[in-house]
Write the structure tokens for this entry.
Amino acid sequence: MSRTVVITGANRGLGLELTRQLLARGDRVIATCRQPALATELARLAAAHPGQLERLPLDVARPESRDAFLAALPPLLGDGRLDLLINNAGVLPSGERFGQMSQDALETSLRTNAIGPFLLAQALAPLLRDGATIANLSSQLGSIARVTRFGTPSYCASKAALNMLGVQLAQALAARSIIVLLLHPGWVQTDMGGPQAPLTPQASAAGLLSVIAAATPAHSGQFLDWQGQPLPW
Ligand code: NDP
């Protein structure tokens, strides 16, 4: 059965690979990114999958961009409903040093990685079908239990915040059997993960989509890796 999916940060990295695999399995995808006009890979996918892929601008950190996206979305939804939201877009600032942390760096990570995904999910909730799924790309680096050294504090804090907001969302949407997942994709070969990462985007995306497909309401609010293994908060 064809499902309708919204995904953020779809122009490169894991977002692009997830989009590719969703299209290959026959889903309708509304792929969002900051600058669709520059997203050449998405343009290629749109040409290869006529009528299956829509591209809309969305900067998840900017409320006015979210409002414009929400206004443009309804005509693109076939029966008016969404089956899956993948909050994939994320930012990992480099070079953070203790003593030099700035208000700006902390706010950018929190806006992009935690506040944006939560507010997008909240805004899309009325359009989600009962039993739909919200998959949030979290990170093992957001696990407070696993912190062993000072490193990328704005990113770690933003993913921990995303986890808590995801658990809150799971509670808010439980009555509609909407499944909210916090997913660690593994360490993946993307611009963010770098070339030395052990996992390909193809393997990570395939694993993530299997975990999403197998999830039931009993999994809602859980923090799982790309193979479905639970992670400590
Ligand atoms: P990349 O850096 O390769 O891609 C990041 C994507 O997020 C790009 O499409 C980028 O768009 C987009 N993005 C960044 N800021 C915004 C914004 N404000 N609005 C909309 N889109 C934005 O990262 P990955 O593909 O590796 O990461 C995907 C997700 O997986 C992220 O949430 C990340 O934190 C998480 N993750 C990744 C790991 C890894 O090893 N790769 C490990 C753990 C978690 P643009 O091109 O416009 O910058």
In short: The CA atoms of residues 179 and 215 lie 7 Å apart. The longest helix spans residues 103-124. Residues 76-225 form a domain with the Rossmann fold fold (CATH 3.40.50.720).
